[in-house]
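Format notes (please read before filing issues)

Several people have asked whether sequences and structure tokens are stored in separate files. They are not. Every record keeps both together, in the order shown below: the sequence lines, then the token lines. Line labels are part of the format and must not be stripped during preprocessing.
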Amino acid sequence: MYESESAWRDVDAYFVDTLVPEDQALVEARESGRGSSMPQAEVAANQGKLLALLCGMVGARRVLEFGTLVGYSTVWLARAVGDAGHVTSLELEENNAAVARGNLERAGVAGRVDVVVGSAAESAWRLVEEGVEPYDFVFIDADKPSNPEYLKASLALTRAGSVIVIDNVVRNGAVVDPDSADARVQGVRAVLADIARDSRLEATALQTVGSKGWDGFTVVRRVR
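Then the structure lines:
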């Protein structure tokens, strides 16, 4: 009876209604995603709250996000870091960034967020060159083939104790196929292999079902 995609969505809706009610700014940000370059690609409300909780648990004040889209997850992250915190969010498309800036303004957090337009990898390495202060928390939710490069840049921009979360790592189960012709799947597999080989990192990956379908995320802690 309950093993269906409609049930997954119903359960997510119940959790959100009970534990994670969205205010108007979040509702408008989520709805604005319909006109973006990737409609309905933003995280679910309960996933956004999870990101915010993780930031709070590690006391994050500096957050780096790969993939702004229209700023839905960015709002959650910006609220989590508080008035003294800062979020740097990297977005490829100027049209998405413009919508995101409006959403951040309506949410009252625009002053603590920089949305940087351009290739996320190039933008991240520019931050490395500028010698910016390390980030406490990184959320990777951009193009999946570039995941290994995003991880590499993240390691150049973090320190011991920092946390990295990588979204969309299950790909409806396709992640188990080593011969997949899907570059997104291979990007996920490559970054997981890189994490497993790196003695500076400890990590786990979890499957999720819900309003975003069958997917999951990887949570990484930098130990040194």
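For reference, the curators noted about this record: The first helix runs from residue 5 to 19. Helices lie at 5-19, 24-32, 45-57, 72-81, 94-106, 120-130, 147-156, 183-197.
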